[in-house]
Amino acid sequence: MGSYLPLQRDDPEEFSLDDVNKHPHLQQDEHPDVTSAVSESPGRSQMWTDWLLLLLSLLVAASSCALYASSSNRLAPRDARGLRMPDQLILPILMVPSGPMMIFPNYIIRANKAMPDGIYERGSHVVLSDNDTMFYQWHMRDSKYKTCYIDAVVPPSEELRAANKSYTSSGSLAAIQVWNVTTPTGRLTNLTWNTRPERLTLLGTVAFYPDEKRREMLELMDGWQLFPPTPRFACGEKRIETFEIVCEGCTLEFDQIFEPTPLAFDLLELG
């Protein structure tokens, strides 16, 4: 017959752990002192394990904080005033164009035949007619390009609208004259018809049209700048050049302002 454990004993102190091992179905609440004795040793072991893990976690956290503080000190922003600045002599060299230039005039001034004593000062407003003429002056620099010419620079109509620019005209603008004139002493700051520079030679003519239109109208070929009627002249030396722009039988009015979209009579180097 199978053994069994009595439900109650006369003397509780006679009960031993061997009885528990022999009878695993013994109710623990009937012998609380036995349960305490059995579980006391595993509880202390778990407590020491928890404290050890907590201590290791604190050590890892402290090490991480120390490492972050050390790295942030090394990577902190530095004052740029202590760094070496680029050589300022390099910048002007890099800004000098290597190819032929289109040069804006230094002075633009008007003279009016109908008001021969009327004084005009330099400005950007260009007026050409049978009574009005314009004088342009360039202060030339030394250059490796020895030939220059005067040309009309007229963008297509859509580019003019985008740049908020326009001009008014009448008659044919296909042969606007460019004259070489005497260079006045001093700066060309004010002028009358009676004090205007004297004409020397007719350099040529320009067409005040967009490039595509004038190529079709005048049947221009590549290299047309090298041939008449292009107003060409020798350049490449430091000197002052003054020219007169004349529109016979036509009128033209616009503002010549130094901007990325040019509408102008400009001087160009021929490379």
Rg on CA atoms, Å: 49 Å
Tell me about the largest β-sheet: 5 strands, antiparallel
- Unreliable parts: 1-17, 19-40, 72-96
User: What form results from the Cα inertia axes?
Assistant: elongated
Instruction: Output mean pLDDT.
Output: 78
Number of helices: 5
Number of separate structural domains: 2
Order of helices and strands: HHHEEEEEEHEEEEHEEEE
Helix/strand class: alpha+beta
Structure description:
The chain is of the alpha+beta class. The protein folds into 2 domains: 12-74, no CATH class; 99-269, no CATH class. It has helices at 17-22, 32-74, 90-95, 157-162, 211-218, and strands spanning 102-103, 107-112, 120-121, 125-128, 132-139, 147-153, 168-170, 176-181, 190-191, 199-206, 232-234, 240-246, 251-255, 264-269. It is built from 5 helices and 14 strands. Helix content is 25%, strand content 25%. Mean pLDDT is 78; it is low at 1-17, 19-40 and 72-96. It has a 5-stranded antiparallel β-sheet with strand order 2-5-12-8-10, with no helix packed on it. A 4-stranded antiparallel β-sheet has the order 1-14-6-11, with no helix packed on it. The chain has a 3-stranded antiparallel β-sheet with strand order 4-13-7, with no helix packed on it.
Topology (SSEs and partners):
Elements: H1 17-22, H2 32-74, H3 90-95, E1 102-103, E2 107-112, E3 120-121, E4 125-128, E5 132-139, E6 147-153, H4 157-162, E7 168-170, E8 176-181, E9 190-191, E10 199-206, H5 211-218, E11 232-234, E12 240-246, E13 251-255, E14 264-269
Antiparallel strand pairs: 1-14, 2-5, 3-9, 4-13, 5-12, 6-11, 6-14, 7-13, 8-10, 8-12
